[in-house]
Amino acid sequence: MMEPLTKEQVINLRKKHYGKSCKLFYKSDPIKIVRAQGQYMYDEKNNRYLDCINNVAHVGHCHPDVVKAGVEQMKVLNTNSRFLHDNLAMYADKLCSLFPSKLSVCYFTNSGSEANDLAIRLARQHTKHHDVVTVDHAYHGHLTTLIDISPYKFNAHGGEGKKDWVHVAPSPDVYRGMYRDDKNAGEKYALEVKKIIDEAHKNGRKVSKHVFIIHGS
């Protein structure tokens, strides 16, 4: 087993081979994470950090049941979804059973970016409208379609700015948002979206009355 690299070696290799747009957390003193368990992550010195940022470990890092299931499946088969397989069909059936009957079709994707891009294409195909209402500060993924609707990106240094078919609603943040500590915050944030749609209609933009919520990181 090869010796682990030092933090400085990793930083130097990253500078050499990573695109500059691939940012690090804690730029002045980046953290080198070597393992994780449950809700904690650990660096090369075994310092423990409470993980409040990752959205990929929904049941905690290295959950034994998830690890066991993954290993058992990879012993048998790991391929794409264009072949018939019991598990895929049963998973889709079980997933759809949790939703209203009209939500009965699944599209399995490889990432949040791919899922959000597909959601936009489905919404535009269904409504025949192009405009999108997005939430302030939201980030939806790295695809061009998603950068165009992510204030996090199009307002950033070097970004191209907001397109005229993108409409930005205030973030429904009950802690720091414009309606924080308001017991009617949900209704008021929804009315902000309605105002944006109504204003767009006045200006001749075609924004659907259907509201598609795409969660942003």
From TrEMBL:
<dbReference type="InterPro" id="IPR015422">
    <property type="entry name" value="PyrdxlP-dep_Trfase_small"/>
</dbReference>
<dbReference type="Pfam" id="PF00202">
    <property type="entry name" value="Aminotran_3"/>
</dbReference>
<keyword id="KW-0663">Pyridoxal phosphate</keyword>
<dbReference type="InterPro" id="IPR015421">
    <property type="entry name" value="PyrdxlP-dep_Trfase_major"/>
</dbReference>
<dbReference type="InterPro" id="IPR015424">
    <property type="entry name" value="PyrdxlP-dep_Trfase"/>
</dbReference>
<dbReference type="InterPro" id="IPR005814">
    <property type="entry name" value="Aminotrans_3"/>
</dbReference>
<protein>
    <submittedName>
        <fullName>Ethanolamine-phosphate phospho-lyase-like</fullName>
    </submittedName>
</protein>
<comment type="similarity">
    <text>Belongs to the class-III pyridoxal-phosphate-dependent aminotransferase family.</text>
</comment>
